[in-house]
Amino acid sequence: MEVQQNVFRALLYVSIFAIVTYSCDGGRGGMKPSTGKTNEMLVITNSDSDWNGRIGKKIQEYFGQELPGLPQSESMFSMAHVPDGNFSKMFQTHHNIFIVDVNPEFKEPLLETKVDLWSSPQRVVKMTVPDRAAFFEEFDLNKEAFISFFDANERRRAANAYGTIEDYKITGKLLEDYNIDILIPQSFYIATAQKDFVWLRREAERFSQGIIIYSFPYVDTMAFNYNRIITQRDSLTKLYVPGPSDGSYMKISMIEPPVEKRIDFNGLFAVEMRGLWELEGDFMGGPFVSYTLVDEARNRVVTVDGYVYNPSQDKKDLVRQIEALLYTLKFGETDTQSPK
Fold it and tell me: Residue 231 pLDDT > 80, yes or no?
């Protein structure tokens, strides 16, 4: 509990800087588009020796940790390093920048985060610490907040790109029939639409992505129970998400049981679940991620779920794309037509 409280304090502390600095430096029109590969972070330290030493190792181990719920090992972020003396304008347009400044002139650590400082979309996080010992203490206290900021920026970047090719016919139907407001790009189509269930698919030449949205009346907090979420998903995918072989259907793989955590989902409490799916009666499979939350205005539980099929290839970027779309979820206004 103490660790969790520390994380919340860190999130609040860093968020204060985000609000203050955004009002001064962010949100300006006509900014340069940000650069860098998807899920990439640029790290700035005082010197190469810091990057090659304990500070760099700490940063690389945390931000480079394995992303859960994938069938093979893929790191959360890839990293590139530039020493502070070489941090020129050419590098300042990168979309994720993490700066560590060991400065003995500071008596206390200072944490800052800025949105769209030199380009857009961009997230810059800076740690200024009086000595290297302070870095490790502050990093451990705030690392979950840091990664949440960079994750959010990755989602914002992807959503901005998808927003230029939104399928308004599909999004309009989801809003009208399900009171679900979510960004769906033109490459998706509706595969199945039932009363409280809809399945959207994207079938590319070498991979597939899908989004499943379903809801049911909220009764109690058992809706967030780990086994309940799995059972609910499996019962619906058995009915509505068939595989290519006769009698085959999607289900959650329990060879490596899914992992869950409680999160803040755009200001709402939600349970995130990550794991692997497979086909009963066939040999396909891949990763999925879901978010289960309550639509209080309609007293219903809503799950938005995304999955990827990309055999023998990396899947992290495709999963991140799905996450970005799921995070655009909003519920329709209360006076919107009720679900059919």
Answer: yes
Closest Cα to residue 142, out of 273, 286, 12?
12
> Domain limits at 250?
167-331
Angle at 320 between CA 192 and CA 152, to 5 degrees: 115
User: Does 179 share its domain with 306?
Assistant: yes
- In the numeric block, the tokens 């181990």 are attached to 61
Query: Rounded to whole angstroms, how far apart are CA atoms 184 and 260?
Result: 25
Structure tokens at 150: 């960079």
Residues forming beta bridges with residue 210, ordered by sequence position: 201, 307
CA gap 67, 76 in Å, rounded: 5
User: How far apart are alpha carbons 72 and 78 in whole angstroms?
Assistant: 16
Q: How confident is the model at residue 258 (pLDDT cuts 50, 70, 90)?
A: very high
Residue 295 has pLDDT above 50, yes or no: yes
Token duo for residue 340: 């059919």
Q: How far apart are the C-alpha atoms of 217 and 223, rounded to whole Å?
A: 9
End position of a domain, from candidates 132, 162, 192: 162
Q: What digits encode the pLDDT tens for the residues 91-128? A: 999 999 999 999 999 999 999 999 999 999 999 999 99
Q: Quick one: tokens of 181? A: 């407001």
* Domain-ending residue, one of 114, 133, 162: 162
DSSP line for 29-54:
TTPPBPBS-TTEEEEEES-HHHHHSH
Do 157 and 285 sit in the same domain of this protein?
no
Residue type, 296: E
Whether 143 and 171 share a structural domain: no
Q: For the ranges 3-7, 9-13, 80-84, 260-264, which has the lowest average pLDDT?
A: 3-7
Q: Is the pLDDT of residue 228 over 50?
A: yes
Number of domains in the chain: 2
How are beta strands 96-102 and 40-45 bridged, if at all? Answer: parallel
pLDDT of residue 29: 60
Beta bridge partners of 82: 44
**Two tokens, residue 132:** 């290297």
